[in-house]
Amino acid sequence: MANSTTNQSMRLEVFRFSPEEDQEPKPRFQTYEVPFRKDWVVLDALNYVKDQMDGSLSFRWSCRMGVCGSCGMMINGVPKLSCAAFLRDYYPNPIRVEPLANFPVLRDLVFQLDSFIEKLKSIQPWIVRKEEKPISEGEYLQTPAEHARYKDFSMCINCMLCYAACPVVGLEPDFLGPAAIALAQRYNFDSRDQGRAGRQEIVASHEGIWQCTFVGECSAVCPKHVDPAGAIQQAKVASTVDWFKEVLWPWGAKR
Amino acid sequence: MKSYVRPMPTTWWLRRGSYVFFMLREFTSVFIAAYLVLFLVMIHRLYQGQAAYESFLESLKSPLAIIFHIVALAFALFHTCTWFNLTPKALVIRLGEERLPPAAIIIPNYLAWIVISVIIGWFVLKG
Q1: Separation CA B19–CA A54 (nearest Å)
Q2: Chain A residues within 8 A of B22 when measuring between CB atoms
Q3: CA distance B8 to A101
Q4: What digits encode the pLDDT tens for the residues A42-97?
Q5: Who has the most CB within 10 Å: A46, A73, B3, B46?
Q6: For A150-157, what is the mean pLDDT?
Q7: Which residues pair with residue A34 across a beta bridge?
Q8: Rounded to a whole number, what is the largest CA-CA distance in chain A?
Q9: To which H or E segment does residue A163 belong?
Q10: Average of pLDDT values for A230-252?
Q11: Do strands A5-16 and A28-37 pair parallel, antiparallel, or not at all (unpaired)?
Q12: pLDDT reading at A5 higher than 70
């Protein structure tokens, strides 16, 4: 079997930030010369740095296979899963690694995700029933067609690449954001769910869908093809229909 | 815990090609609005009488007006095409388990555009 090890090396410019450094911590870039291997991804190179060169480098990762959503980073300015960004696609140019944009940095490549978790929770991401059916009546059934309606939106792994890609999130930190709205739509489109009216309070509010200017980058960077930009535009259409029903339909048809 | 919030410069949209493309798409609306204002002025001149309307038409023959029209047309085409191409994001039609392919939503937009343009062109040019 061919050996993928070569004598070539590659330059990694890594964002460093240490909160305890002094009174006014300043971020900086540190350069590491790492071996270039064709089968290595940026995460492998960072792990090489941590194991062999500088144990103080901090970053999040877990599965190395694009499922856990922990290792999202800005790679040459583009939000990517570092486990899916191959060195060979950048070689021989240097790679600049930064924490995901639009999030406060805690240390090196680790950022604060509390606001993201709060946004996810706010849209009630579970099946809401007006009245729970007793267990004796059996499960809530769903046809393949009904399942297909929300399947794509349910593929989200909460990697937050879409928040890093969205300039609206950067400019308006209170914006509910792509993943949370896509998750709201995932439940709204679920035939077993009856909680749309409750979610609309958040989704159709000032911090919700109407902040979106449809840059579309959230969908472009999504590693799971969730298409949050589509989810938001579809939610805008549905909310507009709601408005017409409530305001222009004198005889009701309220949701 | 101390955290570091990275500043977002006003030139953020120059960082990536896709952001520049977005800003260009948003900027097209300026020309759409400018053309609409010109159209309202034309109607106002028409209301003022034949002489006023004809002098207005004459003023449209100036090089500056012609350059404006060419630029506005380019931006209007860009505006139309980009938005047509985005319609499948907002409009999803499902046939059972399958989703109608995006092209099936985009192409009728272009067809309707061509048909309406031909009808309007026929009305304008025959006179």
Answers
A1: 35
A2: 213, 215-217
A3: 9
A4: 999 999 999 999 999 999 999 999 999 999 999 999 999 999 999 999 999 999 99
A5: A73
A6: 96
A7: A10
A8: 77
A9: helix A161-165
A10: 89
A11: antiparallel
A12: no
Q: How many CB atoms lie within 10 A of CB B72?
A: 18
Strand, coil or helix: A80 = strand
3-state secondary structure of A95: strand
What A193-199 contacts at long range (C-beta under 8 Å, 24+ apart), as own/partner pairs, is A193/A127, A193/A128, A193/A129, A194/A128, A194/A129, A194/A130, A195/A124, A195/A127, A195/A128, A195/A129, A196/A255, A197/A255, A198/A124, A198/A128, A199/A123, A199/A124
A170 contacts in B (CB within 8 Å)? Answer: 8, 12
* Pairing verdict, β A78-81 and A95-99: unpaired
Please give the distance of CA B6 from its chain centroid, rounded to a whole number: 35
The predicted model scores a pTM of: 0.91
The tokens describing A15, both together, are: 């964002």
Report yes or no: B64 at the A interface, CB cutoff 8 Å: no
How far is the alpha carbon of B88 from chain A, nearest alpha carbon, in Å? 8
CATH T-level assignment (fold) for domain B1-90: 3 helical TM bundles of succinate and fumarate reductases (1.20.1300)
CA distance A150 to A221: 20
CA B31, A220, A209: angle at the middle one, nearest 5?
65
In angstroms, rounded to a whole number, what is the distance separating the alpha carbons of residues B23 and B10?
Answer: 12
- Strands, E assignment, A38-101: 72-75, 78-81, 95-99
ipTM above 0.90, yes or no: no
What's CA B30's distance to the chain center, in Å?
A: 9
Residue A253: both structure tokens together: 């048809």
C-alpha distance from B37 to closest chain A C-alpha (Å): 24
**What residues of chain B, 86 to 125, have a C-beta less than 8 Å from chain A?**
86, 88-92, 94, 96-99
- Kindly give the pairing relationship between strand A72-75 and strand A78-81: antiparallel
Domain ranges of chain B: 1-90, 93-127
- Copy the structure tokens of residue B61: 């023959």
Out of B4, B97, B99, the one facing A17 most closely (by C-beta) is B4
Enter the tokens of residue A238.
Answer: 């549905």
